[in-house]
Write a sequence for this structure.
């Protein structure tokens, strides 16, 4: 009825367990009979077992093949991924010189190329930042003003050597707080006030006595992006203050030196107008005074102009090779008559052998003349003046020693200043410019000059040295 059928039962005929299968035989819609097949059940089980084994074998082979292919594919994908991962870790550590070779699937290869481009761009950026940082560090290191950048709690982030010098700090400032670095109370209070927001852009000038210095501090609060950091710029104005004091002193000295001859000229002119012209003897005396004061004024103006030209480098020096002994000997002979009239002995001790110097002959004559003339002027009779030359491997040392009034310690430091006079009670008519001119000439020859003295009343020695030709 179902068109087919199967059954498993024991066959009495063959005395064995058989598996029967039957299907109808049909043709043109008519059933003509039934076809039945019988097989021993053991044979069916054997065929079934073989079929299952074949299926399992094929399935195992396919699984093994799939596993091998999967492993190979995963290894092919894992290797470039591992390289990309290693490169990413290197970039995170700041190493941008490692590049990955693009490999593997297209997506991974594209990822490797993108990482390579990113690493190159970052390397170039970091190199530019490094150059800029070095440039900024060099600028800060060579700035003559102190620069300090600190957090709101006073901890120093950035500073330069000038700041450490101005604050007299020997150790590294970065990482320390300003209250451990700043020892002047007024300066510390100003800095702390700026950090708590009392001012955003402030400037203060402070004068300290120990050590004596004038300090200007400019404080600025940085913008919101800097988390309220403060920038302090410190400038030492001590030299400017000293220059201003020297300028005022120079003007006062010029005024003082001009006042005396001008007053003398005015007094002589008044006396002549009041009738001294009618008396020949008085008229001659006043005219001589006018001549002396006029010459003194002319000499002072000439010396001032000479100093100004030397300072500005506008004195053309006629350098030539000259013998040091001949140069010094000529200067000594020029001043010998003046020394003898003053009752003084002038001795000259030359170098053991001829020594060539590359100098301006007339300018060095002026240096020696000024030193010898001062020695004669400030040495009482009977006294002795010695001009001596001593040679070293690189220098020729000139010395002018006298047995005169000598110098105090503070006078040795200031003797070469303009308008400075050792003692106005000695009756000097000079303006105090001779030694200042002498120092400028020696320095223009790349030389050095200084003075020494055991003390007042024990004589003095003036030294200057010039480089050998």
């Amino acid at each position: 009825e179902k068109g087919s059928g199967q059954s498993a039962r024991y066959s009495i005929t063959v005395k064995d367990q058989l598996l029967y299968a039957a299907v109808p035989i049909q043709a043109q819609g008519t059933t003509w009979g039934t076809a039945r097949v019988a097989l021993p059940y053991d044979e069916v089980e054997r065929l079934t077992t073989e079929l299952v084994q074949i299926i399992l074998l094929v399935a195992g082979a396919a699984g093994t093949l799939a596993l091998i292919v999967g492993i190979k594919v995963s290894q092919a994908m894992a290797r470039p991924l591992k390289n990309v991962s290693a490169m990413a870790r290197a970039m995170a550590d700041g190493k941008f010189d490692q590049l990955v070779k693009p490999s593997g699937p297209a997506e991974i290869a594209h990822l490797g190329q993108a990482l390579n481009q990113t690493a190159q761009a970052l390397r170039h950026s970091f190199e530019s930042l490094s150059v800029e940082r070095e440039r900024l560090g060099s600028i800060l290191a060579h700035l003559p003003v102190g620069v300090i950048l600190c957090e709101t709690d006073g901890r120093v982030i950035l500073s330069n050597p000038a700041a450490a010098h101005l604050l007299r700090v020997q150790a590294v400032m970065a990482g320390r707080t300003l209250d451990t670095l700043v020892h002047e109370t007024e300066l510390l209070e100003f800095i702390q006030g700026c950090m708590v927001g009392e001012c955003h852009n402030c400037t203060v000038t402070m004068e300290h006595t120990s050590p004596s210095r004038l300090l200007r501090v400019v404080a600025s609060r940085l913008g919101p992006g800097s988390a309220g950091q403060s920038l302090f710029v410190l400038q030492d104005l001590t030299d400017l203050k000293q220059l201003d004091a020297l300028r005022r002193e120079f003007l006062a000295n010029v005024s003082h030196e001009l006042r005396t001859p001008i007053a003398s000229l005015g007094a002589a002119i008044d006396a002549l107008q009041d009738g001294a012209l009618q008396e020949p003897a008085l008229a001659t005396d006043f005219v001589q005074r006018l001549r002396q004061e006029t010459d003194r004024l002319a000499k002072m103006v000439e010396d001032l102009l000479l100093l100004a030209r030397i300072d500005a480098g506008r004195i053309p020096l006629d350098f030539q090779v000259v013998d040091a002994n001949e140069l010094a000997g000529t200067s000594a002979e020029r001043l010998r008559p003046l020394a003898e009239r003053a009752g003084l002995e002038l001795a000259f001790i030359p170098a053991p052998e001829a020594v060539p110097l590359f100098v301006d002959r007339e300018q060095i004559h002026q240096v020696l003349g000024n030193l010898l003339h001062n020695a004669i002027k400030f040495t009482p009779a009977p006294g002795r003046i010695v001009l001596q030359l001593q040679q070293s491997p690189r220098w020729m040392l000139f010395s002018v020693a006298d047995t005169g009034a000598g110098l105090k310690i503070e006078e040795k430091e200031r003797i070469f200043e303009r308008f400075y006079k050792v003692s106005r009670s000695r009756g000097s008519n000079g303006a105090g410019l001779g030694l200042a001119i002498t120092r400028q000439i020696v320095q223009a020859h790349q030389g050095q000059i200084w003075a020494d003295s055991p003390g007042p009343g024990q004589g003095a020695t003036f030294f200057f040295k010039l480089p050998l030709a």
